[in-house]
Design brief:
Layout: H1 4-15, H2 18-22, H3 31-35, H4 39-52, H5 57-70, H6 76-80, H7 84-91, H8 100-120, H9 123-129, H10 135-145, H11 153-160, H12 170-178, H13 189-206, H14 210-218
Helix pairs in contact: 1-14, 4-5, 4-8, 4-11, 8-9, 12-14
């Protein structure tokens, strides 16, 4: 497996220098800043990812103000107690993506967030305190306990709200395959453990966070 510096050099050669590779990398928040994010924003970001799955992200972006209104700002308590009447109203509401399984998943994730918040103080506190060295475990926890948060949805939810993270995009997977970490897109726990171990090695070598390393890997291969 090549070192982080070697992979960064590959990316720099492709992008015209290290500064170009490292530009515009999303900020990473510390545990306390993540803990301070209101629960409704976690539910909103989960909902955005769920709605985006399988359709154009721009469609959801264009609809987003109406979606926020339709879900009453993603008030977690209100969404968790969604009545059959409200569910039916949402499925008839042209402001949202009218998919029964996706709307149901938002209600289920509101319950999930409520339960975690009651235990940890806030959903963000639980996420913030989760060690980056077990980010794969955090993804598995969200997939197992949440609704429709597997695949890239959980990872993007965490990335967009500032959690140190890796995203297994096709480009990142291509670099992982090239380094012998996996032989295809990882789906099993064993493969995800191998991915986490590789990221932890590059993290130790570089002192960088997972988000930076993930973006470097993504830019190190031809798209």
């Amino acid at each position: 497996m090549r070192t982080y510096e070697e992979i960064l050099d590959f990316a720099a050669d492709r992008k015209g220098g290290r500064a170009a590779v490292l530009a515009d990398i999303p900020p990473v928040l510390d545990a306390d800043a993540l803990a301070a994010i209101p629960d409704d924003r976690w539910l909103a970001q989960m909902a955005r990812g769920i709605f985006q799955a399988g359709i154009s992200w721009q469609v959801v972006e264009n609809k987003w103000p109406g979606i926020e209104e339709a879900f009453h700002g993603f008030d977690v308590g209100r969404a968790a107690m969604m009545s059959e009447d409200w569910f039916d109203e949402l499925l008839a509401d042209p402001r949202i993506v009218r998919s029964p399984p996706k709307v149901q998943a938002i209600q289920q994730n509101a319950v999930f967030i409520q339960e975690v918040s009651a235990e940890a103080g806030s959903f963000g506190r639980k996420v913030g305190d989760w060690p980056a060295e077990d980010f794969a475990g955090l993804l598995d926890w969200m997939k197992t306990n949440g609704a429709r948060l597997g695949g890239a949805t959980g990872a993007y939810t965490l990335r967009f709200l500032g959690k140190e993270s890796f995203i297994l995009s096709p480009s990142v997977v291509a670099r992982l395959v090239a380094e012998g970490v996996v032989d295809k897109a990882p789906t099993s726990k064993k493969a995800m453990q191998a991915v986490q171990a590789a990221f932890n090695t590059w993290k130790d070598q570089s002192g960088e966070n997972l988000t930076v390393i993930s973006r470097v890997l993504a830019q190190s291969v031809d798209a």
